Amino acid sequence: MQDADIPTDEATGGRRISWRVKLAIALLVLMASGVVLVTNRWLSERFTETTRNRAELRLALYSGNMVSELQRTSVVPLLLAGDPALADALRSGNFSGTSQKLIRVQSEIGVASIVLLDGDGRTVGATNRNLLGTNHRGSAYFIDAQRTQDTVFTAQAREGGAFEFTYSRAVTVDGKPAGVIVVAVDLMKYERAWSGLQDAVLVTDSEGTVILATEPRWRGLPMAEALAAKDVTTTLGRALQATADWAQNPPDAYVRGEAVMKTEARVPFRGWKMMTFTAYDSVRERVNGILALEIMGFAILMAAAFYALSRKAWSQSISFQRESAELRLLNARLQREIAEREKVQKDLEVAELTLAQSSKLAALGEMSAAVSHELNQPLAAMKTYLAGARLLLQRKRPEEALSSFQRIDDLIERMGAITRQLKSYARKGGEAFEPVDLRQALSSALSMMEPQLKLRVVKITRTLPRQPVMVMADRIRLEQVIINLLRNALDATRDTVDPQIDLILSSGEVAMLTVRDNGHGITDLDNLFEPFYTTKKPGEGVGLGLAISSGIVTDLGGRLTARNAEKGGAVFEMQLPLIGKEIEAAE
């Protein structure tokens, strides 16, 4: 064992080499991390810019196609409003050939649908014959067209969230509006075409409301609200987003729970805007491919380094096995010593409990002499009252005799209270915790100390709050602590000219009982709460009172501290958690 504890040159050299290898591996890991991060950032920015340029080109193409369709359709109401056949039909009320004419115009021009409304808003001609006879008097395109002589564009929401886009113009007969021609623009075909692409596309009007979108739930919502509806709300979803987007710039938005890049352009029509949301999948695939090659290269270097270390570790494994066998023997011996120490500790705890009870019984013996004096006084008074009652009964005065009997009953109650206090103090405290009012515990302790207090002239001041100070404690053990503190204060003021003990009970964050005396103070604060430490003369104490009191307060979840007062004397402070504060701390 002694030879194994002396470091040899080989062991020292091995440790130096081990530190160098570890440093080299750490530098390799740092270099690999730096290269991967820099490469990822640079490639992500480069490929993202390429993807953004392609998205802008697609956006310009989508916008141009949509504007072309709108412009082509806008001239149809102007042509039909000046058609003499439609004007004659509205004048005569004969619409037998109107629908056929509108169907022929639709096939030649290629618009979505055409509807002719009379002056009351009733459909009198339509490319869709199922609409004949329907009334559109309250529609915006009918009302707006009658108020002006120009062509009116209307975007009106339909059931299901989709929008209907129409051009309408009034048809005049003899200088008066006789009907309205309504031509629908088929913009939904572009929406269907965009849905087949990977990008998400939406179009907003001048007020920011989504009127076309590849996501059906976006239609009719403000753009901010539409995008917010697709954000990921679960913790797992957010974690996956953070894991997927760790290596790129912050995403512009989230669509279907995926980070996307937003591209925006103005549509040259009524303040519309078009936006596309392109996923980063293509960017990540290209960047991750290059990063995988870099990581693979560094992994090969790491594998080679670990292989070299494993050969060296194998050569040292034999010596480690020998040392481990010696350590197992040492561990077994230590376990035996620990078991012996635990047994001694348990024996010591039993001895401390026995000594604590002995200390209580010793204090009980000290109080017994004074208590006997207290019991003799009521007994003598009872004898006098009995003799007086006998005379009163003989003189036929029973009412006054009953008063004497009542006084005798009061004296018996007082004697019973004294004996009950002695019994409760003599028995061992249990572990039954209950709500205890510290004010009542202090009063009970003072009552038990009353015989000793009457033997000396000591000024005792009490400062108590008006409200109860409730703590969760074993009442017997708590009163034992207070009695021990009072006895120490009485002993400390034995040689003081004007002895005084101050008892201060306060309630704040915790319940605090302060016992302050004007005695000689504490000479050794460090060892004050150690078992068997005492400053009393031999035969007057064993030095367990404060040690036992400190243990009891600790078991109750509190703390017992001591210090010297500035003007002389000692100050003991017992802090216990209040019942309400204890529940809040537990929660």
Explain how this protein is built:
The structure is a single chain. By secondary structure, the protein is an alpha+beta fold. Among the domains are: 21-230 and 249-281, Beta-Lactamase, CATH 3.30.450; 432-577, Histidine kinase-like ATPase, C-terminal domain (Heat Shock Protein 90, 2-Layer Sandwich). The protein is 55% helix and 18% strand. The chain is built from 16 helices and 17 strands. The chain has a five-stranded antiparallel beta sheet with strand order 2-1-5-4-3, sandwiched between helices. Strand 4 and strand 5 form a beta hairpin. Helix 2 (9-74) packs across helix 10, helix 10 (281-394) runs antiparallel to helix 11 and helix 12 packs across helix 14. The longest helix has 114 residues, at 281-394. It is elongated, with a radius of gyration of 50 Å.
